[in-house]
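=== RUN LOG ===
request id: a7f3
mode: sequence -> structure
chains: 1
length: 321
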Amino acid sequence: MRIDISRDVFRLAQVFTISRGSRTEAKVLTVRISDGVHKGWGECVPYARYDETLDSVEAEIAGLPADFTRQSLMDLLPAGAARNAVDCALWDLECKRTGKRAWDLAGLPVPGPEITAYTLSLDTPEAMQAQAAANAHRPLLKIKLGTPDDMPRLEAVRAGAPGAQIIVDANEGWSAAVYADLAPHLVRLGVALVEQPLPAGEDEALIGMARPVPVCADESCHDRSSLPGLKGKYDVVNIKLDKTGGLTEALALREQALAEGYKVMVGCMVGSSLAMAPATLLAQGAMVTDLDGPLLLAEDRTNPLIFDDAGVHPPKAALWG
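=== RESULT ===
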């Protein structure tokens, strides 16, 4: 099989800020795999938090042997962005070869639309209230927080969007003391979920701590091997393709997490509709769907995902799968 790798840049609709920094564009790798007749493609977003760069991920993909399969890929590459793009491209290639949709190949029911969160980036309370007011019509808002001074931001967003459901993502930015102080206010303000309040390496502090709002593991959960370390700390796991290393492992993680009593959130990095498309299969029936990447872009792929009042719809075959 032949692999072609390209670097693509998508402008963001506005500056996007989290506790670790800001960006104005999404830089992604696009992988195309051809068997000489059919071609499949996938996208990944290398993430510096996991020591990934465009160069390092491209080198991982370029180093694959010529005779790999979707099954052997699990041993050839670790969980992460490189394996994600290749795995999703192989799913798409198999769909092209067989004329079947990805959910049929996976043995899943035909997917439907799922309400997705819309993310408000970290800013001043005044700016976040304005963001919230401009998006108050959306049923689910996700707030990027992660500083010791987040209480005014929470109050401002709730004032700007009094009727929306709210989830909070601290991106590892709080200490145990800050989280314990904020937790009662999360309840008071009707927050439905708090995502990764503490750094992944310091989340032992969650054991025995009151969790009046469900706590979701993001940076602490990558693939099935992460699950034993989550016990007693988290109620929900955030499944992202760029963490699991593709749809194959993501489906297995979803099944095992549910079997162990966790609820599931399906999230994303900031990428195009191509990156979100496989995740729509995972999102079916999830507690939270957070696949708003394309909504944050000023430009997208041809044949993009459809977002409407019903939520994010599964991809058309012309896009993926």
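=== NOTES ===
Residues 86 and 207 are 37 Å apart (CA to CA).
The chain has a mean pLDDT of 95.
=== END ===
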